[in-house]
Specification:
Rossmann fold, 21% strand, Fungal lipase-type domain-containing protein, signal, AB_hydrolase_fold, Fungal_lipase-type
Length: 359
């Protein structure tokens, strides 16, 4: 049986890697709705009263059909996976870091070593902490990824993004139905580096680089962990989600103040602050508000350091890791879209497709 799995892995790598560089079209591109819905789902899965069977994920058409949980370490630090359906699309949502204690453990776990995985003839290393978490919940997903005609969206935030990354490559090698539909995709937010250079390279061979995105919001420090100097690498495709630091230049002060007041008065923003997703949001009185001026830029393959590091994102800011910042930016009416060559497009879909064609 092990030899059969080995052969399947070799065959899958040979077949899937040949298609890894194909560009998306209007019929199979990762849509902006897919990204927004994934962000909302990755945010709602943290909430015990929202991540329940039968619940409709807020601001999406997706309905949760199953929820699985396993305890990672001590009580209160569990791993959660939710399965949500809408028509022929199924979303697999991994819950990420639940609190600062677990976040710090993710950083400290670098010292606990790596775990070696064999995909056919390919040996890769991933962070042992991530692999242990993935093994806890992976088996629960298997009955829900068997239909090759379905469109699957694999998503998660923080640790959940790392688990989603491993789910995608595991599916590409051993469960081909997961990515059989050309509209299926991997969409993560605040994802840390999962493994070594071999893992990142194999991931890009197995999961086409334009069928996956890992969104980075401004100076989210978790996206820079585990450290590059320790041998860890990101796979593709980074998408930088930023906010113009100097968007108010050339405007009258009264207009700037009005923009700030508009942001504070946004009903959804109030709800976001009150809900305090993930425990990372400071009290309202201690926060400084910027005018809304968000943009998304498609980045080059791999680490994409030149794309995700900007003047206003050099200093790490743990607040930028909060899932609500990701979802708020994606739902902003001011959001602009830029290609890999910094050309502005009228839609996310146009920017993503054009980037693949070198624009």
């Amino acid at each position: 049986m092990e030899f059969l799995i080995y052969l399947i892995g070799i065959f899958s790598i040979a077949v899937f890697s040949t298609n890894a560089s194909s560009c998306p079209t209007r019929s199979n591109v990762i849509t902006f709705d897919d990204i927004k819905h994934s962000a909302r789902a990755s945010r709602e899965v943290y909430k015990d009263d929202k991540a329940v069977i039968g619940a409709t994920i807020r601001k999406t058409p997706y309905k949760i059909v199953r929820v699985f949980e396993e305890e990672l370490f001590e009580k209160g630090e569990g791993i959660r996976v939710a399965i949500a359906d809408h028509g022929n699309t199924r979303m697999i949502i991994f819950r990420g870091t639940d609190g600062l204690t677990q976040l710090l453990r993710e950083g400290a776990s670098v010292l606990k070593g790596q775990h070696e995985i064999n995909y056919g003839q390919n040996r890769v290393q991933v962070l042992k902490f991530f692999w242990s978490a993935f093994e806890l919940v992976y088996r629960y997903t298997l009955p829900y990824i068997q239909d090759p005609k379905r469109k699957y969206i694999i998503t998660g935030h923080s640790l959940g993004g790392a688990l989603a990354s491993m789910m995608a490559i595991k599916g590409a090698v051993y469960h081909k139905s997961l990515l059989a539909n050309p509209q299926s995709s991997l969409i993560t937010f605040g994802q840390p580096r999962v493994g070594d250079a071999a893992y990142a390279k194999l991931h890009d061979q197995m999961v086409p680089t334009y069928r996956k995105i890992r969104v980075v919001f401004m100076s989210d420090p978790v996206t820079k962990l585990p450290p590059y100097v320790a041998g860890y690498r990101h796979h593709s495709r980074a998408v930088y989600l930023g906010r113009g630091l100097f968007s108010f230049w050339g405007k009258k002060r009264s207009l700037v103040e009005q923009e700030i007041q508009d942001e504070i008065a946004d009903p959804d923003f109030e709800d976001n602050v009150d809900s305090a997703d993930n425990g990372y949001i400071e009290p309202r009185s201690k926060r400084f508000f910027f005018p809304k001026n968000y943009y998304m830029q498609v980045c080059e393959k791999g680490e994409a350091k030149s794309c995700v590091v900007h003047l206003n994102s050099i200093a790490p800011n743990l607040l930028h890791h909060a899932m609500l910042f990701y979802s708020n930016a994606l739902e902003s009416s001011s959001l602009k879209f830029w290609t890999i060559k910094s050309e502005r497009k009228s839609s996310w879909e146009d920017a993503f497709i054009a980037s693949c064609h070198g624009e």
